From TrEMBL:
<dbReference type="InterPro" id="IPR000182">
    <property type="entry name" value="GNAT_dom"/>
</dbReference>
<dbReference type="GO" id="GO:0008080">
    <property type="term" value="F:N-acetyltransferase activity"/>
</dbReference>
<dbReference type="Pfam" id="PF00583">
    <property type="entry name" value="Acetyltransf_1"/>
</dbReference>
<protein>
    <submittedName>
        <fullName>GNAT family N-acetyltransferase</fullName>
    </submittedName>
</protein>
<keyword id="KW-0808">Transferase</keyword>
<keyword id="KW-0012">Acyltransferase</keyword>
<dbReference type="InterPro" id="IPR016181">
    <property type="entry name" value="Acyl_CoA_acyltransferase"/>
</dbReference>
<feature type="domain" description="N-acetyltransferase">
    <location>
        <begin position="3"/>
        <end position="148"/>
    </location>
</feature>
<dbReference type="InterPro" id="IPR051016">
    <property type="entry name" value="Diverse_Substrate_AcTransf"/>
</dbReference>
């Protein structure tokens, strides 16, 4: 039972869209943005200009994904990555699949010379917070807001 983590490829679009549906609708209980919109996002990320996605596979089946977006930090005056998503199917939580996806994002950030990687998680997602603490993450001093 070996897990493979790699960059998402064009052949992953259908499986990745299904995983993203599970993540958005089933896990977070949010409205589905639509197949066309999600597939456009995946294709944009495959170009690796605005971000990148990684996938975790078990015996050829997608079981998780992570998304990094590229942006800048004014405080550092450098480019940073934002890990917007880290999701594995329930059976793969607290497994090598989850940690390897995180580490792939961390390696990519380091290897491409980004200043740092940041991320957020829901206030009530205690399981994710335990995982991020275990991976060496440090909660920041900023309070996150959104509108719209």
């Amino acid at each position: 039972m070996s897990i493979v983590v790699r960059n998402a490829e064009f052949s992953d679009v259908n499986g990745l869209a299904a995983l993203m549906h599970n993540y958005i609708v089933d896990f977070y209980g949010k409205a589905w943005p639509g197949d066309r919109t999600v597939r456009q996002l995946i294709h944009t990320l495959l170009e690796k200009q605005e971000g990148i996605q990684f996938v975790a596979l078990q015996d050829g089946e997608l079981v998780g994904f992570a998304t990094l977006y590229f942006t800048y930090s004014t405080m550092k005056a450098e480019r940073i990555t934002v890990m917007n998503d880290l999701f594995v199917m329930e059976a793969y939580k607290d497994t090598v699949a989850e940690s390897q996806l995180f580490l792939a994002c961390q390696r990519y950030t380091h290897d491409l010379g980004f200043a740092r990687m940041s991320w957020i998680t829901a206030k009530d997602n205690a399981k994710a917070q335990v995982f991020f603490d275990k991976m060496g993450g440090v909660q920041g001093d900023w309070v996150n807001y959104s509108i719209g």
